[in-house]
């Protein structure tokens, strides 16, 4: 335990020194470093590419379209060919756009591209086809959200109103576009959907970081994506990839301890299997259509799906079919190109 803590703090120190050197020797604040580590924790994956124009997706777009780690582009294309026939024989699930008068006019998401909480919100916006703009926040300076008292992402501006915290954002948006009151949940008699949404926030997200930074090559794969897609300056990009990957490799060991994870891959596979068991033979937890729990699980897994950990998860568990159905149902991103 103590050894891990020492390693984690020394990796953070290495990262700090490297960044300070890269910044011309200027002393960086501990807050800046801790912010880098926090974002790195979740800055892993293939979200949905950086600036997708809004467009409709072909029937097999789920295999070729939104958000893929470029390093798996060729592999993804090969998989698509093999998978098209399977897809064609599946029922195609559609998005559920709300009545036009209930669609917010101006939606802006402040995010880190690979943050699981941000991707949860994006999965909701994409599925309900609510157009949104994205502001990529620099995790070190956070200058894009200086105006807000809330210092985390996601922040969603909806027609001038600031919404924060992914699950609360989704509750409020859901109420808006379905013209209903925000549902109150009491922990004692949670319905199935609420129970699994909480499972995502309290369990699933904690399994992700130890997996994507499991060893040096996976940590580098993750940081390659983060630095290619995040909002970093040129100098930051150069240093963050290697220093960040090294630091997160050690930090993820600490997280394993914190969340009582002994074998991170086993924990990931077990979570995937637990989710498939929860489906209990249904296409989605919501039945024939995804509900908010389906969208939450899909959202947080989306950044890791095409990294090594996500590929392993699909190969070694039964989650792949449900994931493909979700890709189909959520479809193209509703993101508006800036
Ligand atoms: N409970 C919040 C958690 C949000 C969160 O922790 N976001 C991370 C990024 S993944 C963050 O902004 N961390 C603070 C930082 O980067 O300084 C939610 O669901 O939105």
Name the CATH architecture of the largest domain: Up-down Bundle
Q: In angstroms, what is the radius of gyration?
A: 20 Å
Briefly note the CATH topology name of the largest domain: Glutathione S-transferase Yfyf (Class Pi), Chain A, domain 2
Shape: globular
Number of H/I helices: 13
Structural class: mainly alpha
Text of the CATH class of the largest domain:
Mainly Alpha
Helices and strands, in N-to-C order?
Answer: HHHHEHEEEHHHHHHHH
- Uncertain residue ranges: 1-90
Distance between the termini: 46 Å
Number of strands: 4
Sheet with the most strands: spatial strand order: 2-1-3-4
> Bound compounds, please?
glutathione
Q: Which whole number gives the mean pLDDT?
A: 79
Instruction: Report the β-strand fraction as a percent range.
Output: 5-15%
Which percent bin holds the helix content?
A: 40-55%
The total tally of domains equals 2
Largest sheet: 4 strands, mixed
């Amino acid at each position: 335990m103590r050894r891990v803590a020492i390693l984690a703090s020394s990796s953070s120190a290495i990262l700090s020194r490297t960044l300070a050197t890269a910044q011309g020797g200027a002393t960086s604040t501990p807050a800046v470093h801790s912010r880098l580590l926090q974002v790195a924790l979740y800055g892993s994956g293939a979200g949905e590419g950086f600036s997708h124009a809004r467009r409709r997706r072909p029937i097999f777009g789920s295999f070729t379209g939104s958000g893929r780690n470029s390093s798996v582009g060729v592999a993804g294309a090969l998989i698509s060919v093999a998978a098209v026939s399977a897809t064609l024989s599946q029922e195609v699930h559609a998005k559920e756009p709300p009545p036009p008068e209930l669609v917010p006019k101006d939606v802006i998401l402040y995010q880190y591209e690979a943050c699981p909480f941000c991707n949860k919100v994006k999965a909701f916006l994409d599925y309900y086809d609510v157009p949104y703009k994205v502001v990529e926040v620099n995790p070190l300076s956070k200058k894009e959200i200086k105006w807000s008292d809330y210092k985390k992402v996601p922040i969603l501006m909806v027609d001038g109103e600031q919404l924060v915290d992914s699950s609360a954002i989704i509750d409020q948006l859901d109420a808006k576009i379905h013209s209903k009151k925000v549902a109150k949940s009491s922990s004692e008699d949670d319905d199935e959907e609420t129970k699994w949404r909480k499972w995502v926030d309290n369990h699933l997200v904690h399994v992700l970081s130890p997996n994507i930074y499991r060893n040096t090559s996976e940590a580098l794969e993750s940081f390659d994506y983060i630095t290619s897609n995040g909002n970093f300056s040129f100098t930051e990009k150069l240093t963050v990839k290697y220093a960040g990957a090294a630091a997160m490799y050690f930090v993820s060991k600490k997280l394993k301890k914190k969340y009582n994870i002994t074998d991170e891959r086993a924990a990931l596979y077990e979570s995937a299997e637990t989710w498939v068991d929860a489906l209990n033979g249904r296409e989605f937890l919501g039945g024939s259509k995804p509900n908010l729990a389906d969208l939450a699980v899909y959202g947080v897994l989306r950044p890791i799906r095409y990294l090594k950990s996500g590929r392993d998860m699909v190969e070694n568990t039964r989650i792949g079919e449900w994931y493909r159905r979700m890709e189909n149902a959520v479809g193209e991103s509703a993101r508006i190109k800036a």
